[in-house]
Write a structure and sequence with these properties.
The complex is a heterodimer. By secondary structure, chain A is an alpha+beta fold. Helices cover 66% and strands 11% of the residues of chain A. Chain A contains 13 helices and five strands. Chain A has helices at 8-17, 23-33, 37-50, 55-68, 71-84, 89-102, 105-118, 123-137, 139-169, 176-201, 214-221, 247-270, 308-330, and strands at residues 225-231, 237-241, 276-282, 286-293, 296-303. A five-stranded antiparallel beta sheet of chain A has the order 2-1-5-4-3, sandwiched between helices. In chain A, helix 2 packs parallel to helix 4 (55-68) and helix 5 packs antiparallel against helix 6. Chain B is of the alpha+beta class. Chain B has helices at 6-13, 42-59, 99-119, and strands at residues 18-25, 31-36, 68-74, 77-83, 87-94. Classes of the chains: A alpha+beta, B alpha+beta. At the A-B interface, helix 5, helix 9, helix 12 and strand 3 of A face helix 2, strand 3 and strand 4 of B. Strand 3 (276-282) of chain A pairs antiparallel with strand 3 (68-74) of chain B.
Amino acid sequence: MPKDRRSLHELSAEVATNPDSTAFVELAAAYRERGDLERALRLCLRGIQRHPTHVEAHYELGRIYEQQGDRELALDEWGVVRQLAPDHLPTRLALIRLYLDEGRADDAYEEFERARRLAPSNGALAQLAERVEAVRSDRQGEGEAAKEGRAEGEGQRQAEREWEDEGRQKVEGPSEDSEGQREVEGQTAEESRQKDNAQVEGKTIETTQPAVDPLDALKAEYPGVLGLLVATAEGQLVAGRMTRRGDDSDSMLAATLVGARSEAARVAKYLDLGELRSIAVESKVARLNLSPLGGGLVIVATSGDIPSGQVALIMQRACELAEASLSTGGG
Amino acid sequence: MKSAYHDLVSRVMRMPGIRGVLVVAVRDGLVVDGRVYVDVRADAAAALAASLYRRACRATGAEDGQSRFLELETDDGRIMIAGQDDLALMAVVERRANLGQARLSVQRAAERLKSMEERG
């Protein structure tokens, strides 16, 4: 820990006054260490949009995901660091630990060997050597440990899969009672999101509710629509719903997909293809459509049998409804 | 020496408006095979695209063995990625390309890739 570490106040002030500053990484780390993972995540995602190749930012984002229990997202971020800076030792060490925790003996060993070539006399690496050898020597146990590791994340991912289940079953929607209850819950959550947003942005905003729920309006016009989410650039959910588990899993999905937007924009940049316009992910039964809206993102799930032309119209309408929702208090 | 994927890549590359085709390892983003025009920064793009593909699969709840088709639309073209757990085919498509044909071609190539993987 550096002795001259700046206080939260100083870091916040720098990030607030200079959006191009890279102090967001240190600030995110400070929030993470205090357990404020949501704020740390928002800061990091927003910072990475401005600094897409900032190695420490990706490393920090991986640590936040890891602390949130989302090891796969952590692996993704550290994979990006590995590509950007193959000699970044903290990432190598983090990967070894994570692989060990998941019982992925071969991966841990490979990573360990690479790290050893980078820093043969590193103390932290020496401490990990024994664990790596122990896991490797127990081939029988490692498979089961890996299964357990995967099972941990499975429940969380199950929620994210539900939009697809809806596509399979062509569900018309929840019963009136549960819908009514969700509306009430949705309003409360939306209010708190607005307040949170206002705190982050340093603004005061009205907390009036949108007159029309954008998802209901979109579904009424296009019956093939299964869900809609509106997220800020920081991955914060401000309107809509997608999965049947409600706010938490919708928020998680929004954060994941805002990260996907950032990666997609970088892919387009590397290939000199200009600005990103939209992303679509198709499976046999459903399709997830993402359109940038200002700094944020509009996400619409549709059934898989809707023609591309109609999807384009749906996305156009979804963006209009999302904008209207935001302007009437949805974020 | 021709790689196992040479024919598959060539078939997609023959389509008008295709700037590059890559076979990418989904797990680590390494390029297994492919052909691109000189101005395409293939390695870096493939690494990020693989990460994006994994993220998309997770977000849409893809189980092992399920395929996904990912399409990015940009100002100057499209990127199409199709595949399964281990390998994905990524195509860089110019605006002038026939989109329907390009999609079909990428999806068919991904199916062939899957068959090749299954045959080992």
